[in-house]
Write a structure and sequence with these properties.
The complex is a heterodimer of chains A (617) and B (231).
Chain A lengths: L2 H6 L25 E7 L3 H4 L3 H11 L4 E7 L3 H10 L17 E5 L6 H10 L15 E5 L15 E3 L3 H15 L4 H9 L4 E2 L4 E5 L5 E6 L8 E2 L27 E4 L1 E2 L9 H5 L4 E2 L2 H15 L3 E5 L9 H12 L5 E3 L7 H10 L7 E6 L3 H7 L5 H13 L4 E8 L6 H20 L8 E8 L16 H14 L5 E5 L2 H11 L6 H10 L12 H10 L5 H4 L14 E2 L4 H12 L17 H5 L15
Parallel strand pairs in A: 1-2, 1-3, 3-4, 4-5, 9-19, 10-13, 13-14, 15-16, 16-17, 17-18
Antiparallel strand pairs in A: 5-6, 7-8, 11-12
Helix pairs in contact in A: 3-6, 5-17, 6-7, 9-10, 11-13, 13-14, 14-15, 17-18
Chain B lengths: L2 E8 L8 H15 L15 E3 L8 E10 L6 H11 L4 E9 L5 H4 L2 E9 L6 H13 L4 E6 L2 E6 L4 E9 L2 E9 L8 H12 L7 E8 L16
Helix pairs in contact in B: 1-2
Classes of the chains: A alpha/beta (617), B alpha+beta (231).
Amino acid sequence: MTDLERILARVEKPARYVGGELNAIVKDWRRVPVRIAFAFPDVYEVGMSHLGMHILYHVVNSRDDALMERVFAPWTDMEAEMRTSGLPLFSLESHRPLRDFDVVAFSLQYELSYTNVLNMLDLAGIPLESRDRDDRMPLVVAGGPCAFNPEPLAPFLDAVFLGEGEDAVHDLVEVVRRYGRGNRDELLCALARLPGVYVPRFYRVEYAADGGVKQVVPLIDGVPGKVVKRLVRDLDRAPFPVRPIVPYLEAVHDRAMLEVFRGCTRGCRFCQAGAIYRPVRERTLKTLLDQAGELLRHTGYNELSLTSLSTTDYSEIRKLVQTLVERHRGERVNVSLPSLRVDAFAVELARAVQEVRKSSLTFAPEAGSQRLRNVINKQVTEDDLLRTVEVAFRAGWSRVKLYFMLGLPTETLEDVDGIARLARMVLDKGRECEVPKGRLSVTVSISSFVPKPHTPFQWEPQAPLAVLRERQSFLQGRLKGKNLVYRWHDPEASFLEAVFARGDRRLAPALRRALELGCRLDGWRECFRFDLWQQAFAETGVEPGAYAYRSYRYTDILPWDHLDTGIDRDFLAEEHARALAGEITKDCRGEQCTGCGLCPNLEIEPQLAEVGTGAAG
Amino acid sequence: MPRVRIAYRQEGPARYVSHLDVMRAFERAARRAGLPLAYSQGFNPRPKMTFAAPLAVGMSGCREYVDLELETEPDPAGVFELLRQNLPNGLVPVQVQAVATGPSLMSLVHRSRYIAVGDVPVGLDTGALQVGLKRFLGRGEIVVEQKRAKGVRRKNIRPGIYSLSARLDGDKLCFSMELKAGSAGNVRPDEVLAVLGKDLSLVPESFAVWRTALLSRAGRLLWDVKGDSIC
C-alpha cells in the first residue's frame, strides 16, 4: 500500500482525490513539453461544477504540446493526513506533485477562497511569495473574476490573466514553451508583454497620506500602464467541451452545462459579472443544439442546464428550449434553467422544460422597494413579481425562492420592510391560487451587498457590520410565520469579501497570517473563523474596515484602476450618479446603446443569435 | 421486463467510489450506450437496477453483480460490448447473461469471499501467525461494537466467519476469508481485521481488501442458483 492509499482509507469521500473519472485525460509526460496544473481553490465538488475549468481543460489538452491536470483544495481531514505523512499536494490525473508542473494556474472565483490558494501552495511545498520562487519552481498564475482586483494576492502570484482564457491560455503555453523553466525573469517579462496579462512585480504601488493609492507605476519598458482584459471574439466558434469530465462524486452542479451566451445586457449596478463579461455574445441555435446533443451523448447526464448570466434573455430561447425538449424527451433528459427572469414568459419556459413541477422556482428581485430596485437598476416591479408567481402557482409549483440583498446603497428600514411585505404578498398569492397549505412555501434568501470593483458601486462603502446584523434580525422578525422560510449568509463573511474585493497589496501580510492561524475554506460556514481573521488583521496592523467601509471620490485612484474591463470609468461614475438619483438605465439589448464604451474600446460588437434590432443587434 | 445480469470488476480509482455513485455511473454508462433501460413510474422515475451487495468504499471487487431491467429483449454479447465501451475506468464488465425473472439479486447473496493483503507485523513468523489464527477461531464468541445513531451495538461475528486462513508471502501477509453476507448477520472483513489486529498487532488500515466472490447460500455463483434448494 502506498502512503496515499493508507491516507485515503481514513478520509471522507476519498474519490475527491484520485481522479480516473470518465473523460479525464491522462497524457504521457515524456511526450508533452508544457505541463499545467489547473488549481481550483475549493473542494472537488465545487471545482468540478465550474464550467471555466472544463473549457480550459479541453483547450489545453487539445494541444499536442501541452497537458492540463486538475487539483482542488483538500478538505480539512485530508489536509491533516497529508501534513502528518508529508505527502505533497498532487494532481488528480498523474498523481504528480504540483512542484513538477511548469505552471500552477489558480481560478479566482471568490475572495473567501484566497486562503485556500496560499494553503494549496504551502501543501505543494511551493514558496508562497513570488520572489522566493526560483527556476525550479512552477510559475504560479491566476485568472477568473477576482483577477480584476488581485492586489491582495499580488506578492503571491507571478502573473494574472484578465478576462476570458480561451485564447490567452494558448499564449501562456507558447511563452512557457519558448522560455522553459530556466529563465524565470525573461519568462515573466514575456508574459507581462502579452495582452491581458498583469505581472504584479513589474508595477510599484505608491500610497497616499490618506491611506488610498497614489499611483501605480510600471517598472519596466514595454509593460502597459493599464492592462486590458482579453475576450473571445467569436463565441459561436470558440472551443466548447462536449466531452467534459463526468465526476463519480455528486458535484454541486451534477449535470451537463451548455453555455448559451456570455455577457449580460441588463446592467444591474451591483453586478460584477455583468460588467466584466461584456459584451453579450450569443451562440447560434444550430451550434447550441449540436453541442447539446454531443454533450448528452458523451456524458450520459439526464439533465441539461442552460447556463448563462440571464439565460431567458437569449434571443432564440423559445426555439432553443422547444427543440431541446422535443429532441431529448425520449432519452428522459430534463432541461433546466438556473434562475428565472421575473416575468410570465420565463415561467412559461420553465413549464415547457419541466413536465413534473417538482423543484422550486427561484427569482431575484434583489431589493424590497421600487425605489431601491431603481437604484440598483433591477428592472422588476411588484406587479411583475406577483403576476409571475401567480402563473407559477397556477402551473403547479408550490415553492418559490426569492433572493434579496441587504445593505444596498441608500437602503432604509422601509426598504428592508419591503422585502417582508413582498414575501407576504407572494405567500398570499399562493393561498389565493389554492396551493395546498402543506406544500406552499416562500423562501427568502438574504445576502449582504458587497461593493465590487469595476461596477457603478465601486465607490460605495459597504454597510457597517452592526447595521447588517441589525437589519437581518429586523427582517427575520418580520418573516416569522407559516410557510415562510428565512435564509441568510453570515454578514461577517460578506464583510471579509468586501475587504478583499476592494483591497490592495497591504492586505497580503494579513492573508498570510490568517493562514498561519488556521483560516482556510473560509467560504464554508463550518470552517469560517472570524475571530482568527480579526486576530490576523490586528497582528499585521491592518484596519479591515478601512477597506470595506471606505467611500471613494471619483477623483481617487482606486487600487484596481490599472486593470481595465473595457468599460469607461466615466460611464461607471455616471451610472453611480444615476443610481443615487434613482434613475434607471435601459437594457442594451434591443434598446439604445447605454454608452458604456466597451464596444468601441475593445473593437467588438454585441452578437445576437437572431440578427435583431437596436443597440445589441 | 427482460433482465440482464452483469458481473463486473470494480478496481483502481473506482474502488474509492461509494455505492450510490457506482449506481449513478452505471445509469450514465447505460444512457451513453443507448441501452433501453426500464424506468420506474412516478414523479421521479429511476432506472430499474438492482445491485447484489454494496461494496465498501476503498475495497476492490473482482466479481460484483448488477441486474438491469430493459425495455427490449437484450443480446447479452451486445450489452457486454456496449458496457465495455461505455463504463468509466475501473468499472469493467466480466460477463453478461440474460436472467429469468426470479428472486431479487440481493436476496441471493449469503456469503462473500475476501482477500486482504498488508504488511507483516515486525516479528511475526508463520508459526506465530498460525497459532494466533487458531486462537482467534477457537473463540466461541467474537464481539465487535458498532457505532449506531442510537448508541453502540454489540455483535458476535464468530458465527459469520465461515473460513479464515493466512499465509506469509515475502513481506506481505495475506488473509483469505469467507464471511456471512446479506441483510442479516453480515460480517465485514474490516471487522475481522480489527479484532485480528489486536491479536497479531497488525495495522488493519494498511490492508488492501478485495471481494473476490459473492455466493448463494449453497456457495454457488449468482449466475447459477437454480440448483440452490430455494433460499
